[in-house]
Amino acid sequence: MRCLLLVVCFNTELCTGCSILSALQDLPSAPWTALRSKMEKHLQVISVLQWVISFLAMGAAGTVLLIYMFCTDLWVIAAMYTAWLIFDWNTPKQGGRRSSWVRNWTMWTYFRDYFPIRLIKTHNLLPSRNYIFGYHPHGIFSFGAFCNFGTEATGFSKKFPGIKPSLATLAGNFRMPVFRDYLMSGGICPVNRNSIDYLLSQNGTGNAVVIVVGGAAESLNCAPGKNSVTLNNRKGFVRLALQQGSDLVPVYSFGENDVYKQVIFEERTWWRLAQKRLQKIIGFAPCLFHGCGFFSSDSWGMVPYNKPITTIVGEPITVPKIEQPPRDMVDLYHAMYINSLTSLFDKYKTRFGLKESDILHIH
Questions:
Q1: Of 10-24, 29-43, 239-253, where does mean pLDDT reach its minimum?
Q2: Exposure string (b/e) for 194-224, b if CB count within 10 Å is 16 or more?
Q3: Residue 48 phi/psi, 5° resolution?
Q4: Cα(32)–Cα(26) distance, rounded to whole angstroms?
Q5: Which of 98, 339, 101 is nearest to 207 (CA)?
Q6: What pLDDT, in 10s, does the model give residues 53-88?
Q7: Distance CA 150, CA 210 (A)
Q8: Signal sequence span per UniProt (predicted)?
Q9: Rounded CA gap, 102 and 83, in Å?
């Protein structure tokens, strides 16, 4: 609960910072303009860093805090929360508990502007249909996926009226006290069959489940300037789309791989084998990466480099509903999806710093 209060305090401070910046904007002198710009930059860094720390540590910190509270005079509060946790255990798999207030926090606009992150719409989506968005590439933290689909900072609901996005992430995150509530407030759901089935079959229409298809395996290969996705053997999301009759939408984020530098170990080396073993045990890849420091971009730290991330939402692929799709049908729509994603990449690559000769490598 203290972790959640900390996040709320972050947002409150950022809102206060927004008011201060508005006041400074009215002062025309150069020193005040420079001060305002510097303060705005610090707020952007804080907003990004709080998400990185929350993702890495809030779940563990919430668990330790809950156990510690059982050993203090606050054990009654811990017992009440634990009872609530047990009662609420299946909520993440049943549509979650999103909060428009959290999704519209001022903090997320600073998060967006740090990189900056943009969302580009290429086609309309019908509210009478359900969708599965395939997001590529994973990157280290999937900043583009979170900002575009876990918040309203880039205006998803205005660009796609009637469509409700649900970003899918590791189911293990929803076993963590406090952190699970933080994730659900953004409309984030577990990436498992029960959760996605519920959203696409028992939650009406106008739902868009966003799956980072490459997952942890893809994050091990991400590096600045590298355009590759793990997709050839990822067909489960296509089979699910056919079973539910949900249209497939390819999504590509240019710049997602550029915000951190990573040490990529060669295949069959001891370090690579250790990474893959840990990935199977804990569910996510232990990447060896770094960004810049809090106070200087020339130092190393956890703050990502402020490189632009542009997310392109492609054309939906109409998918029929087949409860037991045969393998050749799954292969057909998987091939259609790969072709659509490749076309999307080729159409927009030169607009975002890539050369005409650059290709999308699919593994």
A1: 10-24
A2: ebbbbbbeebeebbbbbbbbbbbbbbbbbbe
A3: -75, -45
A4: 9
A5: 98
A6: 999 999 999 999 999 999 999 999 999 999 999 999
A7: 10
A8: 1-17
A9: 24
Q: With bands split at pLDDT 50, 70 and 90, how would you rate the model's confidence at 26?
A: low
Three-state secondary structure along 90-155? CHHHHCCCCCHHHHCCHHHHHHHHHCCEEEEECCCCCCCCCEEEEEECCCCCCHHHHHHHCCCCCC
Specify whether the CB–CB gap between 213 and 111 falls below 8 A: no
Q: Whole-model pTM?
A: 0.88
Q: Letter for the amino acid at 115?
A: F
Report residue 19's pLDDT band, with 50, 70 and 90 as the boundaries. Answer: low
Write phi, then psi, for 169 (nearest 5 degrees). Answer: -135, 180
- Tokens 């056919």, residue? 242
Q: Is the peptide bond before 116 cis (omega within 30 degrees of 0)?
A: yes
